[in-house]
Specification:
Elements lengths: L2 E2 L1 E2 L38 H4 L8 E6 L9 E2 L5 E3 L1 H13 L2 E6 L2 H8 L6 E7 L2 H4 L2 E16 L17 E5 L3 H8 L2 H5 L6 E5 L2 H9 L5 E5 H10 L3 E17 L5 H14 L1 H9 L19
Parallel strand pairs: 2-5, 3-6, 3-7, 9-10, 9-11
Antiparallel strand pairs: 1-6, 4-5, 7-12, 8-11, 8-12
Helix pairs in contact: 2-9, 2-10
């Protein structure tokens, strides 16, 4: 079931907001969700808006609220959602001069619902993979990807091969590229004569972190930015580094006519400096891209 959700519209400079970053580009430690308004000053760009299909003035976007910044989370009022994807969605809407209806949905439900027209697009840190590109069109706005984290007392070091996970319990998000990667490669352990790792999926990131903190899981596979944020804000965790980089984009039904306008809008944000402000707010400057692309091939690294 989906429910209409409020976006954060304007919040001054945000007292206590962790908009700064440390030397590595990781969000500074703070118990507060960043609330700096970096979007409301954005103006409509007629050239970008002119690429929209005729008569387009209002779109419905599906967003999954995972619970942990820089991903989508709630403010203290319990109803207003905010996060990096939210800021990019609002900023693009302002460039295009369109209104948005926001629907909350589980992450794994959004992509299948695009084909039916239930939503016009999705904005929840969707990684661009070759498998997804068969049924989904993407417009990229950041580069994120896959990584791992463990408790500080773990002996597991940087993960460069999934066979390093053999015999362990691996926590991750349901319906994600992480789950797909893990399930696809479980055979690597049994092929090597080792016990396969177990994949534990959760619908909310808070449940993932509770699982590893409480010892039900040995390791977390998650977004690079999400892992860095969690390690910076939760004692007892350590980041094991990046495993696989992925472009991240707004997701649309295959064959959408909205993609050129969204691409132009993202490129406008990059050119006018709003793009950089959003990344700095959420401590994700390491995810910057130079230009937006429409459904590029999956990164291979």
């Amino acid at each position: 079931m989906t429910t209409a959700t409020l976006f954060l519209t304007a919040c001054g400079s945000g007292s206590g907001g962790s908009g700064g970053t440390d030397a590595s580009g990781v969000a500074a430690k703070s118990d507060e969700v960043p609330t700096t308004d970096v979007v409301s000053a954005e103006k409509k760009d007629d050239a970008a808006a002119g690429l929209l299909p005729a008569g387009t003035t209002h779109l419905t976007v599906a967003i999954s609220v995972g619970g942990t910044p820089p991903g989508t989370t709630y403010l203290s009022d319990g109803t207003t959602v905010t996060g990096q994807d939210v800021d990019f969605t609002k900023a693009v809407a302002k460039v295009l001069g369109i209104k948005l209806t926001v629907e909350q949905a589980s992450f794994e439900a959004i992509l299948p619902a695009l084909d039916s027209g239930k939503y016009d697009f999705g904005a929840s840190n969707f990684g661009v993979t070759d498998e997804r590109r068969k049924i989904i069109d993407f417009v990229t706005y950041i580069n994120d990807g896959q990584g791992f984290a463990v408790r500080k007392d773990s002996k597991l070091a940087k993960v460069t091969d999934l066979t390093q996970l053999c015999g362990l319990n691996v926590a991750t998000g349901a319906g994600t590229t992480f789950e797909a990667t893990l399930e696809k490669n479980k055979h690597l352990c049994t092929d090597a004569g080792k016990k396969a790792y177990q994949v534990q999926t959760y619908g909310e990131s808070s449940a993932i972190w509770s699982s590893v903190q409480q010892g039900r899981s040995d390791v977390v596979m998650y977004t690079i930015n999400g892992l860095r944020y969690a390690v910076a804000h939760q004692p007892g965790l350590k980041f094991l580094g990046e495993y696989h980089r992925l472009d991240v984009g707004f997701a649309f039904k295959k064959g959408t006519k909205l993609a050129p306008a969204f691409q132009a809008a993202v490129n406008r944000l990059i050119a006018d400096g709003t793009y950089d402000k959003i990344l700095k707010k959420w401590g994700t400057t390491g995810s910057a891209i130079k230009k937006s692309q429409i459904s590029p091939p999956e990164l291979k690294n």
